[in-house]
Write a structure and sequence with these properties.
This protein has 164 residues and is of the alpha/beta class. It has a single domain, classed as Metallo-dependent phosphatases (Purple Acid Phosphatase, chain A, domain 2, 4-Layer Sandwich), CATH 3.60.21. The protein is built from 4 helices and 10 strands. A 5-stranded mixed sheet has the order 3-2-1-9-10, covered by helices on one side. A 5-stranded mixed sheet has the order 4-5-6-8-7, with helices on one face. α1 packs parallel to α2. The radius of gyration is 14 Å and the shape is globular.
């Protein structure tokens, strides 16, 4: 399964459009947003996609945003998602809460830990857990997303040009 991973869109419409265009061009089958969605208009872009998302530290007014996402058929996983996709167990959190990360590590249930927050792309395996940060759609000198092939474990970062 090809997973499209993005994070830190911060309600920036045009960069998010560019990010989603890159992920669609890579034939992603499922999308994961690792937090800091930022606002309703990002959910408008994500509507209709097979998707999981978690909150980030810059996602304010969560009740309103959660209701809006639900009205579009987008399920909110709050601060932590525990996903089984393509035969892999995947933990998703924004990365700003060390206690959530400690619980994921202690549980020893996941092959992957997907996160955002730092705005820096990462692919690192520590004690059998693969940490993946796709980078950031906004507030990064080199905006990026990532595509993970769960069948081969191949990860590819895609850098895209900012519109305008």
């Amino acid at each position: 399964m090809l997973l499209g991973i993005l994070s830190d869109t911060h309600d920036k419409l045009e960069p998010t459009r560019a990010a989603l265009k890159a992920l669609r061009a890579a034939d992603c089958e499922f999308y994961i947003h690792c937090g800091d969605v930022g606002g309703e208009r990002i959910f408008d872009l994500l509507a209709g996609l097979p998707l999981a998302f978690v909150w980030g530290n810059c996602d304010f007014d969560r009740l309103t945003l959660k209701d809006y996402a639900a009205s579009l058929g987008i399920a909110c996983h709050d601060e932590f998602a525990d996903l089984d996709l393509g035969g892999r167990r995947i933990a998703v959190t924004h990365g700003d809460d060390g206690n959530v990360i400690k619980q994921i590590i202690a549980g020893q249930k996941h092959q992957y830990l997907l996160h955002g927050h730092t705005h820096v792309a990462r692919d690192q395996t520590i004690d059998g857990l693969r940490y993946i940060n796709p980078g950031a759609v906004h507030r990064s000198p080199r905006p990026s997303v990532a595509v993970l092939d769960t069948a081969t474990d191949l990860l590819r970062f895609i850098h895209f040009k900012m519109p305008g």
